[in-house]
Amino acid sequence: MTHAALVESRALAGMNQLLDSKEAALQHTQAVQQAALSASQSKVGQIQAEISHIEAQQAAQRAAAQQAAQQAAQQAAAGSPPSSSSVSTSYGPWAIPAAIVMCESGGQNLPPNSAGASGYYQIIPSTWALYGGTGPAAYLAPKSEQDAVAARIWAGSGPSAWVCASIVGIT
Fold first, then answer.
1. Mean pLDDT of all residues in the chain?
2. CATH of the domain at 81
3. Residue 163's domain spans which residues?
4. Measured at the alpha carbon of residue 104, what is the angle toward residues 99 and 108, in degrees to the nearest 5?
């Protein structure tokens, strides 16, 4: 009987050790999962802050585009061409919002696409000629001439002249 009690006691001790080991492993796993959850929640917060910042930038760009379009429309109504200083100040090195240029051509002076549009602003030959571009296609002209023609198009038609304007949220 004493021997049986000793065997049972050792078996219980072994089971207790196994149980303690399993509990420790469970606690470690829970701690690792909690750390991963905390890291994920922190990353979500960072991403939400980045999204808010981008949305604020886009809103500012839309407001600037609308203001520039209004100024261009006023200048067009008054019969004066848009000034290059007001164009470049609003849009960096571009005559229209940079987001449109990046969508249209990626900022590259591209040769004609299947529709015939070319250059930094993806202007089709008939529009290029209509707004005073020289030569057969925009991509053959220097950037300064492409800028001037794009500014005249923007003054006359605003963002509706570029398909990418609605894609990037400029209307």
1. 86
2. 1.10.530.10
3. 46-167
4. 95
Alpha carbon distance 33, 28 (integer Å): 9
Distance CA(149)–CA(138), nearest Å, equals 9
| Token couple for 15 | 């089971």
DSSP state of 136: S
The answer to the question of residue 115 being in a domain is yes
Secondary structure of 56-120 as H, E, C letters: HHHHHHHHHHHHHHHHHHHHHHHCCCCCHHHHHHHHCCCCCCHHHHHHHHCCCCECCCCCCCEEC
pLDDT score of 57:
83
Residue 16 lies in a domain: no
pLDDT in the model for residue 86: 39
Question: Residue 99: which of 41, 57, 134 has the closest Cα?
Answer: 57
For residues 58 and 83, what is the distance between their CA atoms, to the nearest angstrom?
24
CB atoms near residue 72 (< 10 Å): 24
Minimal CA–CA distance to 166: which of 92, 62, 51, 54?
Answer: 62
Nearest-CA neighbor of 159 among 81, 80, 74, 72? Answer: 72
Report phi then psi at 49, rounded to 5: -65, -40
